[in-house]
Amino acid sequence: VCKPEKGEQPVKIYIAGKITGDDGYRAKFQEAAKNLEALGHVVLNPAILPAGLAEQDYMQITLAMLNAADMAVFLPDYQKSAGATIEWAWCKRIGKDCAMYLDMKGGGQR
């Protein structure tokens, strides 16, 4: 997904990846959000949600964010997350555009 041309609407991108059990998740998601925003996109970042909710509450909120997005971008660790793998399956089921973050960023270790 490239930078929007002048006059085009920015792409709304949902970031998916491992949160539960990753103490550094906020920094990881923030870095991805910053890079995607620098390309001119609107980023929906689940890592900004407050701590203390039940898992089902997080899933309801994040699926609403995902549904509002034009596409989802998956961080390299998404397969280690039950929630992110559900988000991947949901995207595939409804035909939502998906991309791997490292592909958008320009490479790196997988």
Coarse shape: globular
**Which residues form runs of ≥5 with pLDDT under 50?**
none
Number of E strands: 4
- Derived from helix and strand composition plus strand pairing, the structural class reads alpha/beta
Strand order of the largest sheet: 2-1-3-4
- The helicity comes to 40-55%
Per DSSP, what share of the residues sits in E-state strands of 2 or more residues?
A: 5-15%
End-to-end Cα distance, whole Å, is 19 Å
Report on the biggest sheet.
4 strands, parallel
Q: Work out the radius of gyration.
A: 13 Å
Order of helices and strands: EHEHEHEH
Helices and strands in order:
Layout: E1 12-16, H1 25-38, E2 42-44, H2 55-68, E3 71-74, H3 82-94, E4 97-100, H4 101-105
Note down, in words, how this protein is organized:
The protein is globular. 42% of the residues lie in helices and 15% in strands. The chain has a 4-stranded parallel sheet with strand order 2-1-3-4, with helices on both faces. By secondary structure, the protein is an alpha/beta fold.
Structural descriptors:
single chain; 110 residues; alpha/beta; four-stranded parallel β-sheet; 4 strands; globular
Brief account:
This protein has 110 residues and is of the alpha/beta class.
